Amino acid sequence: MLRPENAGSPAEVGEIGMDREAASPMDLSEILKEGTKESHDRAENTRFVKEFLKGKIRQELFELGTVALYFTYSALEEEMDKNAEHPGFAPLYFPLELHRKDALAKDLEYFYGKDWQDRIKCSEATASYVERIHHVGKHEPELLVAHAYTRYMGDLSGGQVLKKVAQRALRLPSTGEGVQFYTFDNISNPARFKELYRSRLNTLEMTREIREKIVEEANRAFRFNMEVFEELDKFGKTLGEVVQESGVPLHDGKGDVRKCPFYAAKGDGEMGCPLQSIMAVVQSCPFQVVIAALLALSAGWYLL
């Protein structure tokens, strides 16, 4: 089996090729995808996510979201490190490629300054999420699969959309300050890496009962994320309306379709850029309404 530190090597291509040939509805990756579809749809239709995708995000909320992510990933990666050799999780241990804690620390230093650790605190909703992750790591480490899958696959998909939205809406530097969380320096091809990750998921040996518990835990992870979104949304309402120069699009539907963030978010290579059709509609419909609706539907799977 390919070791995590060798991801991206020529051997990766062969492993992914085998995954494509052997994929079936009984694969854990497919079971998770189908078993969390409803939770995924609810999460991406929360008010916080929809407003974010329209570019209507205050920097205060973005900073608090980054704080929530920091505490979440600190807990998750601590438990992953402790269980790196657990047979029910080891194949999914990719610290160099995936770990986000250090990147989030850089983002927090950018927003809060050198003393950022003294200026942040874990919110109530995030604390509940963190507590559950630590419980799983200590008592049921095989369920870490659910939390890792839910977070990292989203970061490599719709997270790349949110990076561009945040940079434009908050006028963040194009050099990446403030959005290091979304930058995976050790993954040159996110789509291919996601295929590798799914193939690793499918190699895990477990009983039917454990598979069902993993799906249940993944849905629980979605609920925790939605609770964080709702908490941020409530705080956002105290700040009043935010006015941006414009919503997104970030891609005009022209040129290389693979550069469209919505195309990348799908990860399957089966569809072209939806903005090619959106741009035609914009000519005859109110701009903000059409873009807002289509972005909410097209953004793909992404959580906080």
TrEMBL record:
<protein>
    <recommendedName>
        <fullName>heme oxygenase (biliverdin-producing)</fullName>
        <ecNumber>1.14.14.18</ecNumber>
    </recommendedName>
</protein>
<comment type="similarity">
    <text>Belongs to the heme oxygenase family.</text>
</comment>
<dbReference type="GO" id="GO:0004392">
    <property type="term" value="F:heme oxygenase (decyclizing) activity"/>
</dbReference>
<keyword id="KW-0479">Metal-binding</keyword>
<dbReference type="InterPro" id="IPR018207">
    <property type="entry name" value="Haem_oxygenase_CS"/>
</dbReference>
<keyword id="KW-0408">Iron</keyword>
<dbReference type="InterPro" id="IPR016084">
    <property type="entry name" value="Haem_Oase-like_multi-hlx"/>
</dbReference>
<dbReference type="InterPro" id="IPR002051">
    <property type="entry name" value="Haem_Oase"/>
</dbReference>
<dbReference type="GO" id="GO:0046872">
    <property type="term" value="F:metal ion binding"/>
</dbReference>
<dbReference type="GO" id="GO:0042167">
    <property type="term" value="P:heme catabolic process"/>
</dbReference>
<keyword id="KW-0677">Repeat</keyword>
<keyword id="KW-0560">Oxidoreductase</keyword>
<dbReference type="Pfam" id="PF01126">
    <property type="entry name" value="Heme_oxygenase"/>
</dbReference>
<dbReference type="GO" id="GO:0006979">
    <property type="term" value="P:response to oxidative stress"/>
</dbReference>
<dbReference type="GO" id="GO:0020037">
    <property type="term" value="F:heme binding"/>
</dbReference>
<feature type="region of interest" description="Disordered">
    <location>
        <begin position="1"/>
        <end position="20"/>
    </location>
</feature>
<dbReference type="GO" id="GO:0006788">
    <property type="term" value="P:heme oxidation"/>
</dbReference>
<keyword id="KW-0349">Heme</keyword>
<dbReference type="InterPro" id="IPR016053">
    <property type="entry name" value="Haem_Oase-like"/>
</dbReference>
